[in-house]
Amino acid sequence: MLNSYTKEDKVMLAIDCIIFGFDEEGLKILLIKRDFEPERGKWSLIGGFLKVNETLDEAASRILYTLTGVHDIYMEQFYTYSEIDRDPVERTLSVSYYALIDIERHNEELIENYNASWHSIAEVPKLIFDHDKMLDKGLKRLRRRTSIVPIGFNLLPEKFTMLQLQKLYEAILDKPLDKRNFINKINSMDILIKLNEKDMSSSTKGSFLYMFDGEKYNAKLTDNFYLKL
Amino acid sequence: MLNSYTKEDKVMLAIDCIIFGFDEEGLKILLIKRDFEPERGKWSLIGGFLKVNETLDEAASRILYTLTGVHDIYMEQFYTYSEIDRDPVERTLSVSYYALIDIERHNEELIENYNASWHSIAEVPKLIFDHDKMLDKGLKRLRRRTSIVPIGFNLLPEKFTMLQLQKLYEAILDKPLDKRNFINKINSMDILIKLNEKDMSSSTKGSFLYMFDGEKYNAKLTDNFYLKL
DNA sequence: CTTTACACGTGTAAATATAACACTTATTAA
DNA sequence: TTAATAAGTGTTATATTTACACGTGTAAAG
């Protein structure tokens, strides 16, 4: 804004989204196999273009909804990519987001229609354009964020066991955690509700189910309160 | 990219830059007083528009050079703002950067020509548009980054005293630090070169000058090596 | 009915990291 | 020679993090 308003250049803005999910096998991302040129048949993050009358968050929500059939997905914008030739067809910048969803809670049919599928984070194929770079940065951001702020719950069903939660953190941080230390840490934060309900699928004894207590968490947000796992 | 390439909307992209500087008085930012509409006479971050043939980093560098006369300024992109009416004149998104410069090393004349001036971080006036929000987020990012990665040196002259470095960190983190603990921490990182040269301006005894050792630092980057101040 | 198998749940001690704290030293100017 | 001033330097106490092992409850098998 050093100059007055004159006709400035305009560009196309893509939104590309890393959709993270989690199951017994670990951390996964949702990719689509492109059925159009360029790069037909190659794997790609989920994306779309910004419309002139929506915000980036709205565009990201729209794109996420289109593919998953789910509203109100947790997401965070993390970087804007602008290499001149990043998209070989036309000058396009891309604002990247990552999103966290409960892997059970999405529309299978939509995913199939769009040629999408889940890939373990350790076995992600080569992606188009600069999507590899995006994934790298997004994953790093996710790691940093989850170890500070309890956003990981977005990857779990509403009710979960302590072991599930631990496995989730292990998958995200890509390192083993000590069971007792983990439980002590989580409990000391006092942001979980312990239910009078057990998951009996994993053992004869059964393991208690927990829920994330968003209200308690929000009440604590004033102090600089964080995890560090 | 769920759809094939058709005519997608295009938008104007601004780049807005928080230029941080540091002197005896503390942490400062460079602001310009707008001499054009809208918001004439109001304070604003330093900005400009992306040209179709440059990357965001190039645009940011260009804008920084225009105002300061300095090349190769340390900078980091941190968020892209997209509220529909953030700019009342025309639909414009803004990619925000922060930059760190040695406050002594810029072109006074240019700054005057552009109606720019330095403002202590504690006394920043109301800014135009969503620039307040940008500053808030940028400052938070700077705080987090400086306490992890030694980027603070970019705000100091090449040679500096320990006390200067401590004052810098105190200014960025906005909290007092213990002198001995600070020096021990910094020394334990082993990324400074102690010069055989003293700054005599502050005391009769004089205090040793140091330089940041970028090579040593880079060599250590492999391990997860960080400050935590 | 008893035993076995299995994962759940729990606490303490050692090691490490952080935080608190005060005096001696070098130099110049009075 | 003395006084004044900021520089430089280590140790102890506290807090945090890590390491580590066994009793418990339940269902299925015998």
Q: Would you mind describing this structure in some detail?
A:
The structure is a homodimer of 229-residue chains. The first copy, chain A, is 28% helix and 29% strand. The model of chain A has no long low-confidence stretch (mean pLDDT 93). Chain A is of the alpha+beta class and 229 residues long. The first copy, chain A, has 6 helices and 10 strands; from the N terminus they run E-E-E-E-H-E-E-H-E-H-E-H-H-E-E-H. The first copy, chain A, has helices at 56-68, 108-113, 131-146, 162-173, 179-189, 214-220, and strands spanning 10-23, 26-33, 43-44, 46-49, 74-81, 92-100, 116-120, 160-161, 192-199, 207-212. In chain A, the strands form 2 sheets. In chain A, strands 1, 2, 3, 4, 5, 6 and 7 form a 7-stranded mixed sheet that branches. A 3-stranded antiparallel sheet of chain A has the order 8-10-9. Chain A has 2 domains: 12-146, Nucleoside Triphosphate Pyrophosphohydrolase; 155-220, Orthogonal Bundle (Arc Repressor Mutant, subunit A). Chain A is globular and about 65 Å long. At the A-B interface, strand 1, strand 4, helix 1 and strand 5 of A face strand 1, strand 4, helix 1 and strand 5 of B. Chain B binds a DNA duplex (30 and 30 nucleotides) through residues 161-163, 178-181, 183-185, 200, 202-208, 228.
